[in-house]
Design brief:
The protein contains 21 helices and seven strands. By secondary structure, the protein is of the alpha/beta class. The termini are far apart.
Length: 456
């Protein structure tokens, strides 16, 4: 019998349906965890993609102080300077510069009117394009208008004159950042570099030129007149940390900051990262990556793949996630292409593999591959379909398009396609690994690939 009701309300509130309350609580907690997960994804992805200059610099504190001091002298005292940041790709040249610029903008004594011009050797391929980009970034298109200048130097001097106000210390300091600096060296007469370094040496507008390059011999590439105007300040970045420090970097890169909204989740996450860093499996994954490539860009890519696996139902990272990320990170793109080939194309690749083994890596042509394939067909006529020669030729041309096979030299118009010498761009281990995971691969084909006596 139901309990009595007073004015339509149950006198026993504790007898409310428990399922409704627990469902609501469950919904709220899942909404909170979903919010926390999306926050984690946002913070870590920004960190790994270098979109923000937050976080810590690893192993470059001395270079950071040097560059910050250099740029402070330009922005505060109106000094002109030039410097080169040299280091291998992925060593943190751009990250270092972004950190310095971020901290510089936050300083009280630094005037807000520091102008930045960012040029890239891959984009600004000649001085004319570079000058247009400088004009655009300094927002001087209206000032220049339809003026015609006699030389590059005249044009650049006019741009800087337009920005000048009063004396040297009250003038607007300008920072020129030249990414892929070594590509600017190949511009005609090195006019851009000459003029920028010339201005940074003379008592005109305060200008600092920072070049980023991975060429160690960059000074040898400069012309004498350019070299004499360069300050010869060089900041070297080398990944000099050992594996213990690498593990610390791994922890710091995955840890959530103290100001994370959900403190209990952040604590749980950070404790989990601490346990992961002590896990033998994780250390093996990191050791492999460390020996392959010490740069932090590779580590960030691995962690990005691992963090992508985090969901509401799987809120914490596991060693298995990192193993899977490592497998994806180190996948062979050419072996991946093999997975999408037809059985006929696979057979042609195996025929080329056997030709390589028999003739010790000597080049081959289509006719040799076709003959090898025919031998296999004759032995296995009961299980394999015999294709017409033009069909086999079409499959061979598809492999050529996919760049799994490459001609030794550019074929002439008169050369017969069947006799153009080729080489295979896959090695035996790649082919065998790809065959292991090839879906529904015929047994005869697998056995043919494994046997090295195909010519008998």
């Amino acid at each position: 019998m139901d309990p009595p009701k007073l004015f339509g309300v149950s006198p026993f509130p504790h007898q409310m349906k428990p399922s409704a309350m627990s469902k609501r609580k469950l919904k709220e907690s899942s909404a909170e965890s979903a919010e926390s997960i999306s926050q984690v994804q946002k913070i870590l992805r920004e960190r790994f993609c270098h979109h923000c200059a937050a976080g810590k610099l690893f192993g470059m504190e001395q270079q950071y102080r040097h560059l910050l001091e250099l740029l402070k002298r330009t922005t505060v005292h109106g000094e002109s300077n030039s410097a080169l940041i040299i280091g291998p790709r992925g060593s943190g040249k751009t990250t270092l510069l972004n950190h310095v610029l971020k901290d510089l903008r936050e300083m009280k004594e630094v005037r807000e009117d520091l102008l930045e011009v960012h040029l890239n050797g891959l984009l600004q391929t000649n001085d004319k394009v570079a000058l247009k980009e400088i004009t655009r970034q300094l927002q001087l298109e209206n000032v220049v208008g339809d003026k015609v200048f006699g030389s590059f130097a005249e044009n650049l001097a006019f741009l800087l004159e337009a920005l000048r106000k009063g004396n040297r210390t009250s003038s607007c300091p300008i920072l020129f950042v030249l990414d892929e600096f070594d590509l600017f060296v190949h511009h005609k007469n090195q006019t851009l570099l000459y003029n920028l370094f010339d201005i940074s040496q003379s008592a005109q507008t305060p200008v600092t030129v920072i070049g980023l390059t991975c060429r160690q011999d960059i000074l040898e590439l400069l012309e004498k007149r350019v070299k004499s105007r360069f300050s010869h300040r060089q900041i070297y970045l080398m990944n000099s940390f050992d594996f213990k420090q690498y593990i610390k970097i791994f922890k710091k890169q995955l840890s959530l900051p103290a100001e994370f909204p959900d403190e209990s989740f952040a604590e749980k996450w950070n404790n989990n990262i601490q346990h992961l860093s002590e896990d033998k499996t994780v250390q093996d994954v990191l050791q492999n990556l460390f020996h392959h490539s010490k740069d932090l860009r590779s580590l960030h890519l691995l962690l990005m793949l691992a963090v992508s696996a985090v969901t509401v139902h799987h809120p914490l990272l596991t060693a298995a996630d990192l193993q899977e990320a490592s497998r994806q990170h180190s996948t062979d793109s050419k072996a991946n292409i093999v997975h999408g080939l037809s059985v006929l194309e696979i057979c042609l690749i195996i025929a080329m593999k056997h030709l390589n083994e028999v003739y010790d890596g000597e080049p081959f042509n289509f006719q040799m591959v076709y003959n090898e394939f025919q031998k296999f067909i004759q032995r296995k006529a009961h299980s394999m379909y015999n294709f017409e020669k033009p069909v086999v030729m079409k499959a061979f041309e598809h492999l050529l398009q996919l760049e799994l096979v490459q001609p030794l030299e550019r074929p002439s118009a008169r050369a017969q396609r069947e006799y153009v010498l080729m080489k295979l761009l896959l090695d035996s281990s790649q082919i065998m690994d790809a065959l292991q995971v090839y879906p529904n691969c015929p047994t005869d084909v697998k056995q043919w690939a494994a046997s090295s006596l195909s010519w008998l």
